Amino acid sequence: SLSAAFREYLRHLGLQDFPCGLGSWNKSCLNGHRSPRGAQPGQEEAVLDEETPEALLELLRDQHSPWALPPDCSTQDRLLREVAVLAPKLIHGSRVYQLLKSLRMVDKGVEEVDEGVLQFQQLEELILSANHISRITSANLPRTLKVLELCCNTVGDLQDLCSQPPPELQHLGLGHNRLCGPSQDKFLTEDFWPNLISLDLSFNNLTDLQGLVSQLCSLQKLRILVLQGNPLALIPTYRGFLVDSLPKLSILDDIYIGPDERQQFQGLARQPELSRSEVRVVVSVGEMKGVPAPSAFQQLDSGSEAPVITCSYFVTYEF
């Protein structure tokens, strides 16, 4: 589950170990503590090897330090480690869930977004790319979410996600999944995503261009759309039909839609017969390696009785 993966992630960060945590090495942890038993009033406890939070923080930031964070660490890693130095009590128990507005759990083997995710009451961005999520229940998503990225999973059905979707969601990333049209098109409307600005459906198995567009037309705030990698993107009039059908769209497949292009395709949306779901793919073999050319065989005289060697090759393509 996502909650279990997050707990393992925290353990791996070592938020309780030097120079983080509530250890005696952190001078700020002693503030407000009672005097040790037997100490006289006004007498301060001598603590060996205590450091100021600033000095401990420098151990995380100095690249020559053995406790330094790696240069490629995420903003999330750095935030949690530094908070564990400056305010270590905040990373204890359920308090740590209140720290994060963005949670990035990429390639962590997550299969389920469980109910424990609701503890992230401030969460606005959830990145779950490259996991093993096939279904996601929207009831387990914080209502504060604005970005949900599920790229490179195995999502094939949007029904559970659309039962109680986060109302403020602005970006939904479903690229490189297993969505098939037209059964999933009905979940891509304003009824479910009233504030959606960006939608990534690339590299799925969507085939019904006209049916999909008829649903996307209801997304009044949609400005960025990615559909490349779907079978419907092979239709010759694919881009022109989308540009004319979605006049508020600004970027399609990472390419800006300018006024000249919009003028060029004007009226195409009113000619659906031009967007037939038929394509032709031409494959040309430019070069083949690893097989002997016919000229490599010895040319025999016409009167020779030696056996003639012929070679033939069978080439297959998998789409």
Automatic annotation (TrEMBL):
Keywords: Leucine-rich repeat, Repeat. The keyword Cytoplasm does not apply. One of its GO terms (cellular component) is cytoplasm. It comes from the Eukaryota. PANTHER family: LEUCINE-RICH REPEAT-CONTAINING PROTEIN 51 (PTHR15454:SF19), NISCHARIN RELATED (PTHR15454). This is LRC43 protein. It comes from Sclerurus mexicanus. The gene is Lrrc43.
